[in-house]
Design brief:
The complex is a heterodimer.
Chain A: H1 22-40, E1 47-51, E2 66-69, H2 75-85, E3 90-96, H3 97-103, H4 105-114, E4 119-124, E5 127-128, E6 134-135, H5 159-165, E7 170-175, H6 179-191, E8 196-201, H7 213-216, H8 218-224, E9 225-228, E10 235-236, E11 242-247, E12 250-255, H9 277-283, E13 292-299, H10 305-319, H11 325-329, E14 335-338
Parallel strand pairs in A: 1-2, 1-3, 3-4, 4-8, 7-8, 9-13
Antiparallel strand pairs in A: 5-6, 7-13, 10-11, 11-12
Helix pairs in contact in A: 1-6, 3-4, 5-9
Chain B: H1 11-17, E1 24-28, E2 30-38, H2 43-57, E3 60-66, E4 81-89, E5 100-105, H3 108-114, E6 118-126, H4 133-138, H5 146-149, E7 156-158, H6 162-172, H7 177-180, H8 185-195, H9 201-210, H10 215-234, E8 240-244, E9 252-258, H11 259-274, E10 278-282, H12 289-297, E11 304-307, H13 311-323, E12 327-332, H14 334-350, E13 354-360, H15 377-382, E14 391-393, H16 400-415, E15 418-424, H17 425-429, E16 431-435, E17 485-487, H18 501-517, E18 528-529, E19 533-540, H19 544-556, E20 561-566, E21 568-570, H20 576-581, E22 583-590, H21 595-603, E23 609-613, H22 622-633
Parallel strand pairs in B: 1-8, 2-5, 5-6, 6-7, 10-11, 10-12, 12-13, 13-15, 14-15, 19-20, 19-22, 22-23
Antiparallel strand pairs in B: 2-4, 3-4, 9-16, 14-21, 18-20
The chains are: A alpha/beta, B alpha/beta.
């Protein structure tokens, strides 16, 4: 399967605002798909991009693949139906923080709970963009918006923590401007069997500009984020001289060489640990206490919903002596003959 | 032995038992029996067993369960009374019967709640043990003689101490009476079998199968059943027994079927005929749940069912499955249809096949969940944003649910659009004998699946239409070169998002015309009875049996009427106008405030429409229909 990003670009004009983070995500995914196709042997027609409502949900129109632009919040349910109906498809859900954490929260957690083999890309800009600037379920406490002129008095969701709570098997986080990282994470998500939730910290240049810049600005990014890689020590900082240690039941950021801290004290990331306790803590890290975690935080093996559906159907069909409607209608022993 | 217990009975009742008429068997045309008791008393089962026995014996039957929504409502109270009515006959039976010949009342509340359904001279079977102070109080009786208070002494009352007899039998069989007491309904069933000269065999087979793992329960159930039967044989009060001759059914293999099961099977049949795997996304809701349950049983035939997190996910998973090539279905009841409205609009917009089953119940809101109504027609017709017509069909009897579901699926698949099936609780839970069809007699289903790019097309046009049906083509994900996007935004034929005013108007018109053109493919409207004249009775859906019975009664009395009963609501059959114009007066009968009448007014404003409406959560009774017509004739 030799594809180039160009093979996945539709002829539709991309209508996101200039400077919107969504452009970068689109580019990253269009770059990831050739690699995914090669790694997994997927031909182009097997991809389906499903979305809900919101700026990011226009995504399917810009992909030269099968696509379904659904209704607000329901992309996870539509994607679930597609995958159950045809498990050979590679199903991608494109959604936003309003779409999948407010109106579609129920479908998101249940998709994750079932561990259906779909990839969910959650564009988190902490704002409602398409409706022009109202607070979202991920807006920080106190955020002033058109519907919260005096600041929000709501606690925000952390999508990673939500995924852990729903027994998620895959969670990763990336930044919109980190094209290479986003691309790599998309490949990882595609390779994962089960629901893969990828949170993209994405900038809304019009209604919530620089919402992530406190950690994502180039000058501070290395100090305020940590890129987690499975099997590698949890180090961060320009000079990679800072790391994470477990202090009692809390994570703590330390500096190598200070207070006698050595490399041996630094945690090694194990994305494949079944117990999600540490993964949950990594998801919830926030600047300035701790660096914000990027990369694949959790990736564990578990049975997928679509596999179990298929296996159960095969099993009961093999056990049954009835294989057509005419036989079924006449089975059961509660029939009688009228002469 | 039962005579020993007569000392418990009030004088009035015992007197009846000592008349010494010899048993004589009287042939009757039809009989209505209503089994009633606490919602935990097993009345639904008792009624079903009686109905099954009658059906196997060859009678025509129709059944009507009438139960509260509470699983175990407060014991002994009026609100907890559960009923199951069976109508059996030696000729065709179309309704569960208005009034009953026999009322089984397992407690005073059941008697009180159902006394209004007694025919004159009806037989009443009660468990007299329950007519003690506490039981009478719970049922709201103020004296210690319920029969006197209800003024029903004149009826033929059979009042064995069923609780006591059952307990005694338990002790004799060394079974804990607390466990065994639950089969006291078998005693009443045994009496009914004796009264109507029916064999116990079918019920015995059921008991043996049901309790195969617990021989004690087999023993006690069989014993109580026989005790009831023998009790009826021994007491002198039963002077006559009755015989309902087998009905003359067309030869063939039969089974009893209820509407919910018939819907499930009809969908499965359509799946087989179309070669499209069946997917049902649904959420449990009374009285539609049994459809999802039934489909879940048949996974061995490749049926995929997904019990979703909510009603919206039910329809949305179905829409996804439809996009991916399944025969997609979602089943629900009124409030669930409200929740699905937005997604149904999406299916209209994406032009995907989808069958939406709505087993209507009394509304609005939660309403009376276990009671029947036809109050969702307006919702089905108009309950979506934008210009959003959806085809609507309505089954008219439990077995007709099979046919309706099959054709709803056929039309959805072939015309690439959603179809709503408006069933009713009355049909879903009601049952009747059904001649098992041969699937070879059913038509093929040919969905317009497209497998390759038309050489004339530079790229796939997802909204290019078949010039006859106006159906779009079904390009399934996984097919090379047909990649395209669908969704809720307005699009042009090419599938590109468009807010061009004229494109929008054209697409709205085409989607509406696609639904309207279905009229070319559905059967013409038939008229039963008079083909033209003074009075046309109009109805739709589950009221068919009552309407048909009323029509034949009126004709028998010399009142000339025609009956147009509609199975197809949107579009209406192509000859509807011609049917309506043949009569001077049109009366529309509905279990709502006039949804269909208003719909006809909008379609054919040149006619005037009288209405007969009932919104009590109950089916019609035949007598009220005939009375209504007689008033008009006068």
């Amino acid at each position: 399967m030799n594809y180039t990003p160009q093979d996945f670009k539709s002829d539709q004009e991309v209508k996101w605002c200039p400077g919107c983070g969504d452009h970068a995500v689109l580019a990253s995914i269009q770059r990831a798909l050739p690699e995914i196709s090669e790694a997994l042997g997927y031909s182009k027609e097997r991809y389906v991009f499903v979305s809900g409502i919101g700026c990011s949900s226009r995504f399917p129109y810009y992909m030269k693949t099968y696509g379904f632009h659904g209704i607000h919040g329901r992309a996870a349910a539509i994607a679930t139906g597609i995958k159950v109906a045809n498990p050979t498809l590679s199903v991608w859900e494109m959604t936003g923080d309003g779409d999948s954490l407010a109106i579609g929260g129920n479908h998101l957690i249940h998709a994750i709970r079932r561990n259906i083999d779909i990839n969910i890309v959650l564009f988190n800009n902490r704002i409602y963009g398409l409706t022009k600037g109202q607070y979202s379920p991920t807006s920080k406490w106190g955020t002033q918006t058109k519907t919260s002129p005096y600041g929000t008095v709501e606690h925000p969701f952390n999508p990673g923590a939500l995924a852990m709570g729903a027994r998620g098997t895959f969670f990763a986080r990336t930044l919109d401007m980190e094209l290479q990282l986003t691309r790599d994470i998309m490949v990882e998500a595609a390779k994962h069997d089960g629901t893969a939730l990828v949170e993209v910290l994405q900038n809304c240049v019009i209604f919530n500009d620089k919402t992530h810049s406190v950690i994502s600005d180039k000058e501070v990014r290395a100090e305020r984020t940590i890129l987690l890689r499975h099997g590698e020590p949890m180090l961060f900082g320009k000079d990679r001289n800072k790391g994470l240690v477990l202090d009692g039941i809390r994570l703590r950021a330390v500096t190598l060489g200070q207070d006698g801290v050595t490399m041996d004290d630094i945690l090694v990331h194990n994305a494949e640990e079944q117990n999600h306790g540490l993964h949950m803590m990594l998801c919830e890290m926030e600047w300035p206490e701790l660096p914000v975690a990027l990369g694949v935080i959790r990736r564990v093996k578990d049975r997928t919903y679509d596999d179990m559906v298929r296996d159960q159907l095969t099993e009961v069909a093999n056990k049954s002596e009835i294989h057509c409607m005419n036989d079924m209608l006449r089975s059961g022993g509660d029939t009688w003959v009228v002469e | 032995m039962p005579l020993l217990f007569f000392i418990h009975l009030p004088e009035l009742i015992t007197n009846q038992y000592f008349s010494s008429m010899p048993h004589k068997v009287i042939d009757v045309q039809d009989v209505v029996i209503r089994f009633s008791g606490d919602s935990g008393d097993g009345m639904q089962l008792t009624g079903s067993l009686f109905a099954d026995t009658a059906a196997v014996f060859g009678n025509d039957i129709t059944t009507f369960p009438d139960f509260p929504s509470e699983i175990r409502a407060p014991q002994g109270t009026l609100s907890g009374v559960s009923g199951f009515q069976v109508h059996i006959g030696s000729s065709a039976i179309y309704t569960p019967g208005d009034y009953c010949d026999v009322l089984v009342a397992m407690n005073p509340a059941a008697l009180k709640a159902n006394v209004k359904w007694l025919k004159p001279n009806a037989t009443i079977i009660v468990d007299i043990d329950t007519f003690e102070k506490k039981g009478l109080e719970k049922a709201g009786f103020t004296t210690d003689d319920a029969f006197d208070e209800l003024n029903i002494q004149r009826y033929n009352i059979i009042a064995p101490p069923i609780t006591t007899l059952t307990k005694e039998a338990c002790i004799a069989c060394s079974i804990d009476p607390k466990t065994g007491i639950r089969c006291k309904n078998m005693f009443a069933l045994g009496i009914c079998y004796f009264l109507y000269n029916m064999p116990l065999k079918h019920t015995e087979t059921y008991i043996n199968k049901k309790f195969a793992r617990n021989p004690d329960l087999i023993n006690i159930n069989l014993r109580i059943l026989k005790d009831g039967y023998n009790y009826a044989g021994n007491i002198q009060a039963i002077a006559d027994t009755y015989h309902v001759k087998p009905s003359r059914h067309e030869p063939g293999l039969y089974r009893n079927i209820n509407g919910n099961r018939a819907i499930a099977w009809g969908l499965m049949a359509a799946s087989e005929k179309s070669g499209r795997p069946l997917f049902c996304g649904s959420y449990p809701i009374t009285p539609a749940t049994a459809i999802l349950e039934e489909l879940a049983i048949h996974k061995y035939l490749g049926v995929k069912t997904l019990q979703c997190e909510d009603e919206i996910a039910g329809i949305c998973t179905a829409i996804g499955a439809s996009y991916a090539g399944s025969l997609a279905v979602t089943s629900t009841s009124g409030p669930g249809l409200s929740l699905k409205s937005e997604a149904l609009g999406l299916a209209v917009m994406a032009e995907l096949p989808l069958v939406v089953i709505n087993v209507q119940r009394a509304g609005p809101s939660t309403g009376i969940p276990t009671k029947t109504e036809q109050t969702d027609l307006n919702q089905a017709l108009y309950g979506r944003n934008g210009e959003c017509p959806v085809a609507i069909m309505a089954p008219h009897s439990p077995s007709h649910c099979f046919v309706t579901a099959f054709f709803a699926a056929k039309y959805a698949l072939e015309h690439q659009m959603p179809v709503i099936v408006l069933s009713e609780g009355f049909l879903g839970n009601g049952s009747e004998p059904w001649k098992i069809p041969d699937m070879n007699d059913y038509p093929a289903i040919n969905p317009p699946i497209v497998t390759e790019l038309d050489p004339d097309e530079p790229y796939f046009y997802p909204f290019k239409r078949n010039p006859e049906t106006l159906a779009t083509r079904w390009a399934l994900p996984g097919t090379p070169n047909l990649e395209h996007r669908v969704g809720g935004l307005e699009k042009n034929h090419r599938g590109a998002v468009s807010s061009d005013p004229l494109v929008h108007e054209q697409m709205v018109t085409e989607r509406a015309e696609k639904v309207a053109r279905l009229a070319r493919y559905i059967p013409r409207q038939q008229i039963i009875g008079e083909q033209e004249g003074d009075i046309l009775m109009v109805s739709w859906g589950g009221t068919y049996g009552h309407m048909l019975s009323a029509e034949s009664q009126l004709q028998a009395e010399g009142i000339k009427v025609g009956l147009a009963h509609f199975d197809y609501i949107r579009p209406l059959p192509i000859n509807t106008e011609d049917v309506l114009k043949r009569f001077k007066k049109i009366i529309v009968f509905e279990l709502n405030s006039g949804h269909f009448a208003n719909y006809l007014r909008a379609q054919y404003p040149q006619f005037s429409y009288l209405q007969y409406n009932k919104i009590q959560g109950q089916p019609f009774i035949v007598a009220e229909i005939t009375e209504a017509i007689k008033k008009i004739v006068k």
